[in-house]
Amino acid sequence: DGALASIGWEIEVEPSDMAGFIEAYRTDLDGVREFHDLRWSDARMKRLGDFYRAWIERLEKIDPATLNPTGRIDWVLLKSHLSASRRELGFELTERAEIDAFIPFREAIQSLELARRNMERPEPQSAAAAIAKIPDQVKMLREKIDAGRKKKGDANAENTDGIASTPVLALRAASAVQSLRGQLRVWNDAYEAYDPTFAWWVRTPYADASKALDEYAKYLRETVAGVKGNDDDPLIGDPIGRDRLLSDLEAEFIAYTPEQLIVIAEEEFAWCEREMLKAAAELGHGDNWKAALDQVKQDAVDPGEQAALVTEQSRDAIAFLKERDLLTIPPLSEETWRITMLSAERQRFLPFAAYGGQSMLVAYPTASMSHDDKLMSMRGNNRHFSRIVTPHELIPGHHHQAFIAQRIRPYRSLFRTPFYVEGWALYWEMHLWDLDYPRTPEERIGMLFWRMHRCARIIVSLKFHLSEITPQEMIDFLVDRVGHERFGATSEVRRFIGGQYSPLYQCAYMIGGLQLRSLHEATVGKGLMDDKTFND
Questions:
Q1: How many angstroms separate the CA atoms of 334 and 399, rounded?
Q2: How confident is the model at residue 154 (pLDDT cuts 50, 70, 90)?
Q3: Is 31 exposed, middle or buried (0-12, 13-18, 19+ CB in 10 A)?
Q4: Is residue 52 within 8 Å of residue 86, measured between CB atoms?
Q5: How far apart are the first and last CA of the chain?
Q6: Which 3 state secondary structure label does DSSP give 339?
Q7: Residue 435: which residues within 8 A CB-CB, separation 6 or more?
């Protein structure tokens, strides 16, 4: 209680009977994952499968009825987490099976590293013989892949035992090959400098194998997938399919199918378009809301002024919250944030603002960008778009959210979900709209642009994972239906399909916001509590 009071809170937090149990589980999980970190290995999958099964058995020995309310919630969360983790292993096994033909040397490499981890003495001669086979295997694999590609492109080609490849499988296989090369390097480095006999047998075969694997990964990535690290590279993602989407939705307690969520997004999109038409008419553009949007985009600050703009907007948002007594803001939360400008390279994936480590990451053109990219970035980060992005990222959004989460029941970070992380920020975008935060038609258009974007994210990301839309069609949708600049739309799609986020992450913004808004209507809307109590 004293610690909470010191940060400006007077909320009594009931301790959970499950907190220690969950902390013990997480500590054990971290230990198992750290030791068994050889991705694609049978040993990792088996050990994690056994681990999850054992903890489910332990959890089921606890009667939820004997727990306090917080403990019962924790019990359900952990049970769901364990079940989802076991399902995820099954999906990983399927993913590996789809690229097994590309990596026949996987087991040989991983068995060497697993033996080292089990502290078995190496057998240099037999190890050298095993890895000496890899260059010839790689040569044969490339021939089979080329034969498969030739057959695919020529219906009259002779029937061969070629390996059928796609850009998606090639990229996934390239990642696996680089991972295996790294595992082989770790194994080699553990002995090479310390064991003369090992070096005598292994040095040359290892060097040849490492070179072959590196060239093979490059071949898969650049020749087969066509990804060479250039701005005009094809955008290639790895759709997870409907079954896995349904599994992920179950893990998130979302009682809707992907198709139903798309319908919700389209309904919200239609509301946004109606509001856009109202704002466009106020600006003298009649029913041409895209012309009004283009007018708003032209209102950007001069070079060097974006950080000052964001600072001013953040203080305006905090003042708005305080004046209306909407939220308890601990002084330390208000004190400990800063601004970091994004580099040109990072803006390839983050074309707009983001939050990370007490910093609002701010996008604005850099001197090294092309002239066209500079103009597109300025339009995409104009003052009216930024005005709602700033509270989304800072206070009351992600900065405030993270500040509290680190101090109240931090063990629940195990159950981190984008439906809360991003849903909280979207709830505030909706709530601030209802409280007349936008003062002008331009500011309403700035808020509506992002709200339309959240609807579009649901539609394009779910359709992508259902294999109903291509990355290029995703970009076109964001440009044509939302009004994105093509630079921003391309960067967004590159991030959507890049695999760094949960497949449901983009869906979670709007859907999470709607969940929280429904809770608000069921409590504040019915007079059960006031706004500040709900938000705290």
A1: 9
A2: low
A3: exposed
A4: yes
A5: 16
A6: strand
A7: 324, 326
**How far out from the chain centre does Cα 352 lie?**
15
| Per-residue tokens: 55 | 């903890």
2 pLDDT more than 50: no
Report whether 110 contacts 96 (CB < 8 A): no
At residue 345, φ and ψ (nearest 5 deg) are -65, -45
Identify residue 286 by its one-letter amino acid code: G
| Distance between CA atoms of residues 204 and 214, nearest Å | 16
Number of Cβ within a 10 Å radius of residue 125:
13
Amino acid identity, position 112: L
Q: Which DSSP string do the residues of 452-473 spell out, in sequence order?
A: HHHHHHHHHHHHHHTTSS-HHH
- Strand intervals (E) in 345-494: 354-356, 359-362
Where do we find the tokens 């590196």? Answer: 214
Residues 6+ away with beta carbon under 8 Å from 504: 245, 248, 249, 252, 254, 418, 419, 461
CA 156-157-159 angle, 5° bins: 115
Predicted confidence (pLDDT) at residue 385 exceeds the cutoff of 50: yes
What does each C-alpha distance from 36 to 48, 49, 186, 416 come to in angstroms? 8, 12, 14, 23
| Tens-digit pLDDT profile for residues 406-440 | 999 999 999 999 999 999 999 999 999 999 999 99
Please name the residue that has the structure tokens 């020995």.
61
Complete DSSP assignment for 277-325: HHHHHHTT-TT-HHHHHHHHHT--PPTT-HHHHHHHHHHHHHHHHHHTT
Q: Identify whether the C-beta of residue 353 lies closer than 8 Å to the C-beta of residue 458.
A: no
How far is residue 60's CA from residue 55's CA, in Å, rounded to a whole number? Answer: 8
Instruction: At 174, list the tokens.
Output: 């390239």
pLDDT tens digits along 445-468: 999 999 999 999 999 999 999 999
The residue with tokens 């389209």 is 266
Give which of 389, 365, 391 is closest to 378, Cα–Cα. 365
Is residue 84 a contact partner of residue 250, using CB atoms and an 8 Å limit?
yes
Which residue shows structure tokens 């490492």? 210
DSSP code, position 236: -
